[in-house]
Aldehyde dehydrogenase (Streptomyces formicae), 491 residues
Amino acid sequence: MTRTERLFIGGEWVEPDGGHYEVIDPATEDVVGLAPEASRAQVHAAASAARAAFASWSRTTPEERAGVLSRTASILRRDTAALAGLAQAETGATTGTAHGMQVAVAVARFQRYAKGALEPVEEALAPQINEAGPMGKAGVMGAVAVRQPVGVVTCITSYNNPWANPAGKVAPALAMGNTVVVKPAPQDPLSVFRMAAALEEAGAPPGVVNVVSGTDVAVGEAAVDSPDVDMVSFTGSTAVGQRIGEVCGRDLKRQLMELGGKGAAIVLDDADLDAAAAGIGTTFSFYSGQICTAPTRVLVQRSVYDPLLEKLTAYIGYLKVGDPREKGTIVGPVISAAHRDRVESYVELGRKEGARVVAGGERPPYDKGFYVTPTLLADCTNDMRVVKEEIFGPVVVVVPFDADGPEAAEETAIALANDSDYGLIDYVFSGDVARAFRVARRLRAGGVGVNTIGRNMEAPFGGFKKSGVGRDVGSYALHAYSELQSIVWPG
């Protein structure tokens, strides 16, 4: 039976003013459930409820906040099977991804920020000796820097991971004493309502967490422009992020933006090509390429160009595309028919621009579901749109480059990688680690993977240029959801 969801405002489950809309399973095109369509007034009511709850929640002890977050993690862990099934139905994720990279990551993030709530918020500063003057007598001034909650935070989350992404916003925001209004992506909001239910069961007071959803752009706009909102945390496209930034700028609201990416993977002639192919190949499989950190733009030195193409082509050959619930499936569907059409249009654009389709390029032969065949585009140049623009699907573009000597190779690769509007995460593959680090330090990206696509989940995450504003993850997320206050006194 399909579930009919309601809005969560001020601790109450509320019928939506705009009725409901269908949430579709990308693998089967069946209806997963009915999501509520909020009105602007209801979104503003959610923000008002968060404002009312802030006064008391911000004064709770760190131990109280840690308790709520820890209990939430336990509830999600308890219900993992059902929650992963819902995530899979909403997103088309494979079984392993739904369990291990969606719900399990959400559990880990709530547990991490239960500990984060206990991290010190005060930093003692060195005393300063002041001579007598217009500001008063001579003396020693003591000072402490204190992290204070920002206030009401709107969290607008992405469709590619309706568990890890909201948890990565809500948990640190609550740990710091903020209250939140969560506006999930319209394609898969049902999981976020289950997260709210877990927080309610864990003892989050009314108004501390509110969830509103809808397909109308006005819902998201209301979550940003509400006068009760102090900060907006957004994950999504650069275009939408720019619009949010414009609205926030009018009232000088704090922003945390994790936007688009076109990750450059530099493969130098001394690289381990098997490791490079394995890392780059995850673009074809992980979330069906719907991930901003993917190494989608391969910049490879000419001398190892053909061997790398062979390995990437072979990698695609091992990938089973199909029903994400079936054992052995590696590549499930993309989120919607509209997005499938968009990805396919980029593949066709690549052909027209002169790229060579080495593998993929055709729609899989399924009667239902929004499937895209993993596609490898070779012989690309850096001025092609398929190289410059984010495709957000299982498509990798490969740009060969020539260089006369090791130093020239580094300079050329760095120039090509930095010739982009984006700067989220880049990658460097080289057998010489010192060389790889030398290149990494000159890349205009918020993160760089050296001979890996893995991440350290305590390292700061965010982008340069049009890939975002601010940093989160680990303790950096606690900093992102706080304001610094200085307190000064005479010694």
The first strand starts at residue 3 and ends at 4. The chain is about 40% helix and 20% strand. The domain at 264-462 is CATH 3.40.309.10 (Aldehyde Dehydrogenase; Chain A, domain 2).
